[in-house]
Amino acid sequence: MQNNISVIGVDLDGTLYPITPEIKKRQRENIYQKMSVHFGISAEEVGKLFEENYSKMGSGSRALESIAKSLEKPVPKEDFIQEALEETDFLDLLEPNLKLSQMLNRISVTKKLDLITSSRCDFALEKLRRIGIYKEIFENILAHEGSKTTGEVYRKWLSKRGFPASQHLYVGDNQIQDIDVPNQLGIQTCFLGNYLMANFQIKSILDLESIL
Ligand SMILES: [Mg+2]
After folding, report:
1. What pLDDT does 2 receive?
2. 57 alpha carbon to ligand 1 midpoint, in Å?
3. What's the CA-to-centroid distance between 34 and ligand 1, angstroms?
4. How many Å lie between the centroid of ligand 1 and the Cα of residue 13?
5. CA of 147 to the centre of ligand 1 (A)
6. Ligand 1 centre from 113 Cα, in Å?
7. Mean pLDDT value across residues 53-72
8. What is the per-residue pLDDT across 4-57, written as a single tens digit (0 to 9) for each?
9. What's residue 147's pLDDT?
10. What is the DSSP string of 10-46?
């Protein structure tokens, strides 16, 4: 396919490996536990509220704001959920993906690859190691370097790269943070799943090669 993409940025969590039900369960338990302490209601109750709000808003931090408002409690600090996700240990559940690392190697011959993730750098590198992806495949790793929701990390990426925004492609699995926000900055986007606002939609990360 003909396009003018020079740089591809990829998301990590849910993109380079699937969030399996087991991983999701551990993450959610940790989030609910933290929220339960913060809001002073049971983990079960807080979990129900979180799921309702999260599915409406597509962003954990926005869901939290909304819950805080409805309970008339202070809004937890910005990286509350991120902290809970980072504290959740599921590294033992990640499996090597040889096909993915081979595909990234092939793509890196003609395109520049960067990793852009909200995950903390040491945790991100350990995840890559478990999946079997050499970190050196990425020229830039922007890990935990600003918010996706506000676009801060994407602006940082664009200024690091210096290409026109339209020559960047971002690949991710979150409709708002990975697609809507970079789209607004002129970055092309590719969604894992169905989302018409994205420039490209693929079923699996292994289909990425087919749109380039
Ligand atoms: Mg993701």
Report:
1. 52
2. 15
3. 21
4. 4
5. 13
6. 17
7. 89
8. 899 999 999 999 999 999 999 999 999 999 999 999 999 999 999 999 999 998
9. 87
10. E--BTTTB---HHHHHHHHHHHHHHHHHHHTS-HHHH
Question: Which H or E element spans position 9?
Answer: strand 7-10
| Average pLDDT taken over every residue of the chain | 93
Q: What is the pLDDT of residues 22-33, one digit of tens each?
A: 999 999 999 999
43 CA from centroid of ligand 1 (Å): 24
Q: Which of 8, 13, 9 shows the shortest CA–CA distance to 123?
A: 13
Residues flanking ion ligand 1, Cβ below 5 Å: 11, 13-14, 173
Mean pLDDT of 72-80: 84
Among the listed residues 77, 85, 173, 174, the one whose alpha carbon sits nearest the alpha carbon of residue 123: 85
**What homologous superfamily is domain 7-17+94-211 in, according to CATH?**
HAD superfamily/HAD-like (3.40.50.1000)
Cα 204 to ligand 1 centroid, rounded to whole Å:
13
Cα separation, 17 vs 26, in Å, equals 16
The candidate with the shortest Cα–Cα distance to 13, out of 172, 201, 187, is: 172
**Domain map (residue ranges) of the chain:** 7-17+94-211, 21-91
d(CA 19, ligand 1 centre) in Å: 9
Determine if the pTM surpasses 0.70. Answer: yes
Task: Report pLDDT for 62.
Answer: 86
